[in-house]
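Justification of computing resources. Each target in the renewal requires a structure prediction run like the one illustrated here; the chain below, 363 residues long, is used simply to show the kind of job we budget for.
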Amino acid sequence: MSNSKYWVAFSSIEQIDSNFIQRLYNYFGDIKTAFEAGTKELSQIEGLSIKKAENFVKHRDKIDPDKVLSLVAERGIKFYTFEDENYPQMLHNIDNPPAVLYYKGSLDICNLNKTLAVVGSRRASSYAKDALHKILSGFINTDICIVSGLASGIDTTAHTTALDCNLKTIGVIASGFDFTYPAANKHLYEKIENGNGAVVSEYYPTFEPIKFRFPQRNRIVSGLSYGTLVAEASLKSGALITANLTLEQGRELMCIPGLITNPNTEGIYKLLKNGATLVTCTEDILNALNWEVKAEQLPLEAPKNLEPDEEKIYKSVEIEEKGFDELLALTGLDVDTLLTNLTMMELKGIIKQVDGDRYRKAD
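Resulting structure tokens:
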């Protein structure tokens, strides 16, 4: 741990990135020597401009390694440096690995040998969220770990489904821990950190969630994972960036098909045409990644022991959601009987009310 403060000190300088840190570390072979190097020594590094070297030295000279390390400790933030034994091996194997991986929660309880990244649109359709929930629910009570970016939309669905299914999950954020983005996910951050996985970042605690950091963090989402599942993606999206990173990193790329009328599926079909694995059920992921889970851990396809009236309702919404008036016509039940059964089926978790008086089967 004696060299940790120099890794943290490096990462606290906003004007440099992990590529720069790795370059100096690889050249000098020691992080302390690299941090303390002068302009003359830095100028000997092939391809490193004098301007970059001088810019680093100028900002480095304002840094007290002991103080920046103390700030991290005061906030209760843990971390692994690139040379730590417990630094995730999957990240060691990518281009431009993060110099420091800060985290809250516990990475030790996450099975880093069965990690699945999930990415998709922030403005995801109900269909995409429902399909993702159904597919991920097939991993219930297993040791598979879901990795995503803690953004709104598909990311949030991935993390909440993991929590609902007793899975561990890792959220990779695009800022330091002084910020919670989006603010609406504050409770989700806390649930993950409190015994359900870890929230991780390569950024020093004071770094803000600036726009360019979001695509930067995507290499960590895919880099931590054996495969990436894309739930919805337009042709110009962060999800497509992550998909391309997945291929560059030599990992498995998988996609959930969507409605062809939805602009957010244009990226999906482009990826599928280029050879991504089509995923319509949990088993497709298991087959693609050559993973095994016990069969009894997969959810049943349909509820058992339904009452006759419940069965009429369930069959009516099994394929697609229906409105109350449609259910009256399809089931032949009177208003009071239908209302009573809908209420009981919701309480049992068999169906779910969506968009006012519309109902669909629960996943």
